[in-house]
Amino acid sequence: MHIPDGYLSPQTCATFYAASTAAVGFAFAKFKKSVDEKTFVHLSVASAFTFIVMMFNFPVVGGSSAHITGIPLITYLFGPFASIIASTVVLIIQALLFRDGGILALGTNVFNMAIAIPLVTIFVDSLLKIANLKNEKVRMFISTYISTNVAALLTAVELGLQPILFTKAGKPLYFMYDLKTTIPAMMVPYLLIVGVVEAVLTVLLYSPLKNFAKIKK
Amino acid sequence: MKKGVGKNFKTILIILFALAILTPLGLLTQNPAFGEWTQEEIKKMLGFVPEGLKKYAEVYKFDLFDGYSVKFIHNQYIGYILSALIGIGVIFAIFFLLKHLMTERK
């Protein structure tokens, strides 16, 4: 899901840089209010966990590979704002140090993963609470599954719009396959495999890790 | 109760270290992820590399740990584990620094 440089037009990159900067700035301001020593321990652990989880690539349908992010889990453990900050730091390090995801595409990658996943996770969870779904694990499974797929859909749409919006002499300037290709290619493995793996992992790991997250100073 | 944080933190560090050792499992698949192809792979797929893609793909040149392989280490599994440990180290350093900056200002 890490879009490399060159795949997106500069216009797309600039738009998402602006959106992501605003959202991360907002999360940081919120987070700053409740900051204490414990928060930094949580953030560093959440970040390290997300980073390492993303290194486990596995094969998916269609002869490609994918990885989960662990972001829904850290959202449940530490809340959406801490989760946004922790995963943004991971994406910055991945881009700068390991060339996983582009520098120009960083704003877009932060938007798709670090911002969309925590917000959608929390949003769907609250909707399910309103709908009176009492089983926490079921809520967790559904909201993780949906947020993971929303992130994939965002990526598919951003990539798929490139050859529709940006061509020169009939040839694509940046990413080459349009929505007809990107949406099924991204969504089939996420709907069938990645979303399920992420959701199962979130449900399984939440209980054993929740004590760590709740320790008071 | 601060002791609680310490003990748990140690457990977490051990878990993270164990996960780092296991990361080469992520190398078992050599399939590229959809939409994360190199220029050579794109050339093979399309017969050409889009002009804008070629222009912007290489704007960032630091490649010491390109794709979680370490330039001077030829064993890709060791390179991958080392990348995992470097990543964790850098993340902890960033939040340690942030903690000092933000709590001092208070």
UniProtKB/TrEMBL annotation, chain A:
Keywords: Cell membrane, Membrane, Transmembrane, Transmembrane helix, Transport. Coiled coil: none annotated. InterPro entries: CbiM/NikMN. GO terms for biological process: transition metal ion transport. The keyword Iron does not apply. The chain crosses the membrane at residues 40-61, 73-97, 103-128, 140-166, 186-207. Gene3D superfamilies: 1.10.1760.20. Its main location: membrane. It is a multi-pass membrane protein. One of its GO terms (cellular component) is plasma membrane. It is found in: Cell membrane. Pfam families: CbiM (PF01891). This is Cobalamin (Vitamin B12) biosynthesis CbiM protein. The lineage of its organism: Bacteria, Bacillati, Bacillota, Bacillota incertae sedis, Caldicellulosiruptorales.
From TrEMBL, chain B:
GO terms for cellular component: plasma membrane. Residues 12-101 form the PDGLE domain. InterPro entries: PDGLE_dom. The chain crosses the membrane at residues 77-98. It is found in: Cell membrane. Keywords: Cell membrane, Membrane, Transmembrane, Transmembrane helix. Pfam families: PDGLE (PF13190). This is PDGLE domain-containing protein. It comes from Caldicellulosiruptor hydrothermalis (strain DSM 18901 / VKM B-2411 / 108).
